[in-house]
Write a structure and sequence with these properties.
The chain is mainly alpha-helical and 143 residues long. It is built from four helices and three strands; from the N terminus they run H-E-H-E-H-E-H. The longest helix is centred in the C-terminal third of the chain and has 30 residues.
C-alpha cells in the first residue's frame, strides 16, 4: 500500500454464530475493522450495526479505524439498502463508506487499501501523542 509492504490478518465470521466465542478476542486484538453488509439484504445492514456496537463496547472506544462496506453492488437491481442510507450511517459512525462486489471484484482491493491506510493513520496519531507526552516527561525542574 503506497509503496509499503503490509501484512494483515483477516477474520471473516460472515456473522456465523459458531464464531461468537472467539469474536470478542479478535475484536480486542484488532487494529481495524470492516463492517460488511449485503446491499440486497436489510437484515444484513442491521447486523453490521450490531457488530460495530459490539466492537466499540468491547474496545471501550468509538474512535477506531472502521470502514462500512456495502457488498454485492453488481446486484444493484435487487438493492434493499440505499446508498444514501449507508452513507448516513457511515457519517454517524464518522467512517468512510464504499460499495464492492466480491463477484466482479469491484472495489475489493480499494477496500483493503482504505482500511490499511486508516490503521496507519491511527498508529501515526497515537505515536505522535505518545512522543509529545514523553517530551513533556523529560523536563527536569530543580527547586
Amino acid at each position: 500500500i503506497d509503496g509499503e509492504e503490509c501484512f494483515i490478518d483477516i477474520l471473516d465470521t460472515a456473522g456465523q454464530e459458531e464464531y461468537a466465542a472467539i469474536r470478542d478476542n479478535y475484536y480486542r486484538s484488532g487494529e481495524g475493522f470492516m463492517c460488511v453488509f449485503s446491499i440486497t439484504e436489510a437484515e444484513s445492514f442491521a447486523q453490521s450495526q450490531e457488530f460495530r456496537d459490539q466492537i466499540c463496547r468491547i474496545l471501550d472506544n468509538e474512535d477506531i479505524p472502521l470502514l462500512l462496506v456495502g457488498n454485492k453492488c453488481d446486484l444493484a437491481h435487487l438493492r434493499k439498502v440505499s446508498t444514501r442510507e449507508a452513507e448516513a450511517l457511515a457519517a454517524e459512525w464518522n467512517c468512510q463508506y464504499i460499495e464492492t462486489s466480491a463477484k466482479t471484484p469491484s472495489n475489493v482491493d480499494e477496500c483493503y487499501a482504505m482500511i490499511i491506510r486508516l490503521i496507519q493513520q491511527q498508529k501515526q496519531t497515537t505515536n505522535k501523542s505518545k512522543s509529545t507526552k514523553n517530551e513533556k516527561k523529560k523536563h527536569c525542574v530543580i527547586l
